[in-house]
From TrEMBL:
ATP binds at residues 186-190. It comes from Capronia epimyces CBS 606.96. This is Apyrase. The lineage of its organism: Eukaryota, Fungi, Dikarya, Ascomycota, Pezizomycotina. PANTHER family: ADENOSINE/GUANOSINE DIPHOSPHATASE, NUCLEOSIDE-DIPHOSPHATASE MIG-23. The active site is at residue 149.
Length: 719
């Protein structure tokens, strides 16, 4: 990574991962592209992001618990996270630092109105309490789909493993060099991977097209399959499991429900609260009693995969959700979150090996879960499994382990490494670690928490995409950084790195030769790529500003005036006289609009006279034209009588109306033989400097004259 010099400012970004169990703040920083390009060794690499453990902080519980009290989410939840971030970001960099709060599965389970209220209060609090860059609440504070979360995770894993920057070093065969990604939280689980060439062609419509950009401005494109299973996270799976137990055992008069997924002798409420020996609450309510039978636990959790749900689009893995066929010759998966915590948290202290193999893991789980709860309590006090393991963690690990094993092997289909040795004490983990050093994560599955000392989090993938979008494209017309449907150009569901989405663009795709302004905007709020109409619509109707209605009325007034001025002099006259007809009982001279109209016309007439005077120096050239070369017939009709002349002298508006009618008359024609003097005056070819009195006497010729007013430049609207 490029070493920061004293006069080089980093770019910073903040992401708050609002999960189901808590919210964690992450801080990332990278060098601006102008500085990064000074190091030629990183030209063909993605921007180098860095973070530190001390930059991260988590608070409990999740923001979804504020559904009923959304006004409290700021001071009672966000305040310590924001204060923590401000400790590590230079004060002068804060206004240019984008901040995102992206909520996941926990918020997805809330009713829509509660989601909206919580998010609105979050955004208002951040904007009022900090100077972070947060130009658009809908973009920077939102509930993201599980598919988006999975794609960000896929980016983060491959970024840290080096698959993007050094594809030749990660060749898996068949032209494949990326790794699959598995994530399991409390409420949902995600899978993301690039299928082999055959499956990619067969399921092209199911893939997401991702576009990144290296420091030298060259794009990288990947076609990734991503899906999510809401309700298949560890906590939600446990809730469904307890519901099944209640249906099976919770009959009248039966309070004790045997639970093979709890250690022997452990009593707990349905919500997971441990019941101590001194608690008398069991006398009138149902409770779970641990039997510590891990084999039975595996059988009880298998139905939670819902493999029997119909599959409308073959093939499917879990809950009838379509997933292209996995090719484990090239699809090697990295698992994070619960995949890591459940496989390592309990056993990390006693067993130093980090890799996962089915036989070793299952034997360790079986040994732990079949202990008496009293023995486990003693081990917790003695820190046998480390400082992080408490009673709640120990109580949950047996169910989570059985759920993870079922999900990995029966759900997703990960090969059971070491399955042939389940009846022995053979430890395949050590062999797996040794082979991993040579192959480099080329096993079917490996749980990780950090890669190269950096935590693998989907939030990193979010900021890698954001930093990549700040790189200027090497060629004009390059398509923007982001992701969307696997179609050419920019699809309607395209997501810019700032989080914005094109909602109202026409149903067409922008080809590679089309210039777009999306790239520059993608580094900012993301919505910068909207059309002007979209921006106006969002500002007026989606903004929380209290004065948007008066602003909308003011905008309409400006639009009407601009349209009136741009429609041409003749049309203005017709509109004016339609709205304000001249009569003996009412005169437009007394109206404000009439006065405004006459002043506008006189100003243009005066401007014409000024331009005529400016052309006086060109008199010699004007004399080259003979007035007899042109003739305008039928200009003076019966209406142009002496009485009309008097009227014209008294009413300039009438003169203007009559001259307009004469000019637009279908009888008007040009003869190349003669040209009347008033036409010459109108063209400004032989006009001499004259006094204002003489110009007033020649009002008729002025009225018949035709001056072209300079059209105003169109005003560019900005949101």
């Amino acid at each position: 990574m490029v070493v920061q010099k004293a006069d080089q400012r980093h770019r910073y970004g903040v992401v708050l991962d609002a999960g189901s169990s808590g919210t964690r703040v992450y801080i990332y920083r990278w060098l601006p592209n102008s500085v990064a390009r000074l190091d030629e060794s990183v030209f063909h690499a993605l921007p180098a992001l860095e973070t530190e453990d001390k930059w991260t902080k988590k608070v409990h519980p999740g923001v979804s618990t504020f559904g009923d009290i959304p006004e409290s989410v700021g001071p009672k939840h966000l305040q310590p996270l924001l204060e923590h971030a401000l400790k590590f970001i230079p004060k002068d960099a804060v206004p240019d630092t984008p901040i995102f709060l992206l909520a996941t599965a926990g918020m997805r389970l809330l009713p829509e109105q509660q989601q909206h209220d919580v998010l609105r209060n979050i955004c208002s609090y951040i904007q009022s309490e900090t100077n972070f860059s947060l130009p658009d609440c809908d973009v920077h504070v939102q509930v993201i789909p599980g598919e988006t979360e999975g794609l960000y995770g896929w980016i983060a894993a491959n970024y840290l493993l080096g698959a993007f920057n050094a594809p030749d070093d990660h060749s898996h065969g068949k032209g494949h060099h990326t790794y699959g990604f598995l994530d399991m939280g409390g409420a949902s689980a995600q899978i993301a991977f690039a299928p082999n060439a055959t499956e990619a062609e067969k399921h092209a419509n199911d893939l997401t097209l991702l576009r990144l950009r290296t420091v030298d401005g060259v794009p990288q494109e990947y076609k990734v399959f991503v899906t999510t299973w809401l309700g298949f996270g560890a906590n939600e799976a446990r809730r469904r499991y307890v519901e099944d137990l209640e249906e099976s055992y919770g009959t009248d008069g039966v309070l004790e429900m045997p639970d093979p997924c709890l250690p022997k002798g452990l009593k707990a409420k349905q919500d997971g609260t441990i019941i101590s020996s001194t608690t008398s609450a069991t006398a009138s309510s149902h409770y779970l009693l641990g039997t510590g039978n891990f084999e039975e636990c595996l059988r009880k959790t298998f139905p939670l995969l819902e493999k029997d749900v119909p599959c409308p689009d073959e093939p499917c893995l879990v809950h009838g959700v379509h997933v292209p066929a996995l090719d484990f010759d090239v699809n090697h998966f990295i698992g994070i979150s619960e995949y890591w915590h459940t496989t390592h948290e309990i056993f990390e202290m006693a067993h130093k090996d980090k890799a996962y193999d089915f036989n070793t893991y299952q034997n360790r789980v079986k040994e732990f879960c079949e202990q008496d709860w009293s023995a486990i309590e003693k081990g917790i006090k003695d820190k046998t499994w480390g400082k992080k393991v408490d009673e709640k963690t120990a109580m949950e690990v047996c169910f989570k382990a059985s759920w993870l094993i079922n999900m990995l092997h029966d759900g997703i289909g990960i090969p059971r490494v070491g399955l042939e040795d389940t009846s022995s004490s053979h430890n395949g983990t050590k062999e797996l670690l040794e082979s991993g050093k040579e192959k480099g994560f080329l096993d079917s599955f490996q749980a990780v928490n950090k890669i190269k000392s950096t935590e693998v989090s989907w939030t990193l993938g979010k900021m890698v995409l954001y930093a990549s979008a700040e790189v200027p494209s090497a060629r004009e017309g390059e398509l923007p950084v982001g992701f969307g449907s696997n179609v050419p150009g920019i699809p309607k569901d395209f997501q810019y790195p700032g989080g914005g989405r094109l909602q109202d663009i026409p149903d067409y795709h922008v080809g590679p030769d089309t210039k777009t302004g999306a790239d520059g905007a993608s580094a900012g709020a993301g919505v910068g790529a909207h059309s002007i109409t979209d921006q106006i619509h969002d500002t007026l109707f989606k903004s929380d500003a209290p004065h948007r209605l008066p602003g909308f009325i003011f905008f309409l007034l400006i639009l009407i005036i601009a349209t009136f001025y741009l429609c041409g002099r003749d049309r203005r006259a017709r509109i004016y006289h339609t709205l304000f007809p001249t009569s003996s009982s009412s005169s437009p001279k007394s109206s404000f609009l009439g006065l405004l109209f006459r002043r506008h016309r006189r100003r243009h007439s005066a401007g014409r006279y000024d331009r005529d005077r400016d052309l006086e120096d060109g008199d010699a050239a004007a004399r080259l034209y003979d007035p007899r070369d042109f003739e305008l017939e039928n200009v003076a009709s019966s209406s142009a009588s002496a009485s009309d002349d008097d009227d014209l002298g008294l009413d300039p508006d009438a003169a203007f109306r009559k001259s307009s009618q004469a000019r637009t008359s279908p009888k008007t024609k040009y003869d190349l033989g003669r040209l009347p003097s008033d036409v010459m005056d109108r063209k400004g070819l032989v006009v001499r400097t004259e006094s204002r009195e003489r110009l007033g006497l020649g009002l008729e010729s002025v009225a018949n004259g035709r001056s072209k007013s300079r059209s105003g430049s169109p005003t560019r609207l900005t949101p």
